[in-house]
What does this fold into?
Amino acid sequence: MHTTANAQDRVNDFVLKLANVNGTGSASANTLLMKSMFRMGIPVMGKNYFPSNIQGLPTWYEIRVTREAYVARSGRIDIMVAMNAETYQRDVREVDPGGYLIYDSSWPRPTLLKRDDITILGVPLARMCNETFKGVRARILLKNIMYSGVLAALLEIDLDVMRALLAESYSSKKSLLDSNTQALEIGYNYAREHFPCPLPTRVARMDKTANHILIDGNTAAALGCLYAGATVGAWYPITPSTSVMDAFKSFCQKWRVDPETGKNNYLIVQAEDELAAIGAVIGASWNGARAFTPTSGPGISLMNEFIGLAYYAEIPAVLFDIQRVGPSTGMPTRTQQGDIMLAAYASHGDTRHVLLFPANPEECFHQAIDAFDLAERLQTPVFVLSDLDIGMNDWMCPVLDWDESYKPDRGKVLTKAQIENLPTKFHRYLDLDEDAIPYRTLPGVHPKGAYFTRGSGHNQYGGYTEDAAEYQIVLDRLRRKFERAKSLVPKALIDASGNQAAIVSVGSSDGAVREALDILKSRGVTLDYMRIRAFPFGPDVEKFLASHSLLFIVEQNRDAQLRSLLTLETPIEKHKLRSILHYSGLPISSSCIVDGVLAELGNEKRLVNSG
Amino acid sequence: MSFITKPKITHPGLPKNDIGLTRRDYEGGMSTLCAGCGHDSVTAAVIEAVWGLSIRPEQLAKLSGIGCSSKTTAYFDSGGHGFNGVHGRMPSIATGAAAANRDLYYVGISGDGDTLSIGFGQFAHAIRRNVNMLYLIENNGVYGLTKGQFSASADIGSKAKRGEENKQPPVDPVMTALMLGATFVARSFSGDKEQLVPLIKAGLRHNGFALIDVLSPCVTFNDHEGSTKSYEFVRDHYDEVVHADFVPPATEITAQYAEGHALPVTLHDGSRILLRKLDPSYDPTDRTRAIGYLREKLQQGEHVTGLIYVDQSSSDFHAVNNTTATPLNQMAYEKLTPGRKGMEKIMGRYR
It folds into this structure.
């Protein structure tokens, strides 16, 4: 065993990275490791870097153990479990000096071990699995559980917590529970016998995860759809949005089956493509059901024509765009915030759409509900712009609580009696209340409420028109309606203490920004912060922009899309804006922001109040 | 033009249906189509059928895509909601609408361009889902609004107005629907109201996707010599194989038919279609043989019309999805939310 002198004490503050081959069952071991530390009261963050593939390609899982409860990547690796021969060399290189590398020593790899600034720990995992277990598949799967046992000993993870988690997973499969527990213990005992356990880099019980859960954003969004009362979901499978509908379906199977009749109080349409998916959402919403579609960038591209129809004919629709790396097919299993401009102005002609930007699974839940309320209140498509990082990774969030007083805002829909008592004919697009929102009626309710929905030119009475003035009356009201949305969408979150310089970010960049702000403060640089949560931008956003002389716009795309949208939609002077951009496909790290801010401030020190 | 309101003139002597409405109560806006357009006859047939079935005007939802045919949903049943969507995408709107409210009658009106070119995929998948709707294609082999291009249903050798000959094989919606497992497949002709009206009635009452491909000549761009979709050509090459009479529930069948020539089919709601076979060897419940028969007649240049195939035993969209009887758009929120207690239970999984 090699040892290094500069190993630091990193109790509850380190990054563990697991390098595997996909399709070998490593996901359950990743979850086991992360959840066991979470149950020990220690804040953890998991990031999955996986290939667009079923089996045989490299996959990594990064667990950040963080006593400060940071949610972003830190940018360093302290412990690497290198189980993939193909990526071994690269994985060895990635470990920070003073760190540890654990590898399967069943087969010697002398030529690859060329670092003496890290500690290398060999465990004959394959050999021990082959000696203990029968069957090729079992041996491959249990190797993951065995290294989890090794890590339990090295990091001092409570073995009883791990055993309990295995018992929960295999409550109905005794033989699997036995073999998994055995593998765990073999790994644990091997490490105890051969290495000085625990390492200085290790965990210690805390009490910071009480009243918290580990949940991914797609599951939380699906839960939001369930609680919003959505009854129709239409979709076409696309990574990384698929698990939204998977989760919705499984929630519905539990909570939406009538106990007396066994019939479903929901209907999910797996459409032939995204065009049909949004078409079905529009048809269902037109008919008065709460309907949604989860998709990703390529799906939004396909849906553009229909989105324009819903905008112009004023039909509610809820879209979840779980953003992935573009352009084109891009990198389907990597994250980006690259659809901001696409969604804001989706479809031809003059169109502008309401966007919500959740930053974590908790907000995915709440904004899913907001999205349905806003879509029906404003009679327009609403986009929830999540991304792969939020959607598919497990995040530590406060336990979701449900306010029983919630009532869905179904917007201005006339009842049968209201239609019957109308003094005149029903006029679909008339601005009766002078709030730019007209009344609508649902099919089947009353013949007097019938009207003709069309994407072609129409006047405020709902009739077909090619008359310039009549057309413009409706189009101008749509602009006023969008203005009105400013007061209805979630407000920006602002942390301000009178600094002249500030950071502005959106969505999943938030975690890295918050950590960066702490790091910068420790270096004497204090900045204000605003996280935008919706488009159109409200007066709060404009005020914040106006009251700062230097603004760092942090976002995860190449073309500074949030910055573009801010310059287009607010009076902000361009020269005040600096972009910090990250678009590698991996979630943004705090160090990227710290470096970006400090580099810029080298030139602009005069603008910053030292905190 | 469609934005001109048609004056409503009611004559006290007009016949009323079972719910006290006259045919005028099922009319819509003034047609803006060319004088003599086949589509206007189809509109008239729809009005006759819906009136005859005593469907309340608001119980009918009218859906269409883009094109001359798609405009016609504005020309009937002004008491029912209409939705003129985007080109070729009516079937997905219909799917969503039907998902939200299973209690309405859905009639989708489309054209050969809307269905067989830009909307071919959506057409196919609405059939696969067996969405409970009547799907009418007003088929004239030509793009009218863009002034006379061939559509995907134009026959090989058929000539355009200026003499150009179509060289690509046509897509036959009837054959396509049969191949895809459609449960009600018919073809008719806009000029044959006697055949068309009972087919529309039966299609509306059919439990599942009902297709009627209506040959509906375009008087402006495709009614000349050399066209295979002209009034004259269709009349001359018209082979009705099974005539369907629609019989409402609890009505006695009084007409006399020669033995082996009549076949009653009971629909979901108890009404019946009485199929009068004009070719005694034909069996409209045998999909494979129906396809063979169509191919044979096609080689002879004949348009087979009538109720070509019907299957009352298959599961419709809602049966497949095991949807509750209450329309989803009418479910009380309390029935849809697991509430606070449910949330506590759900959270247990993520701790």
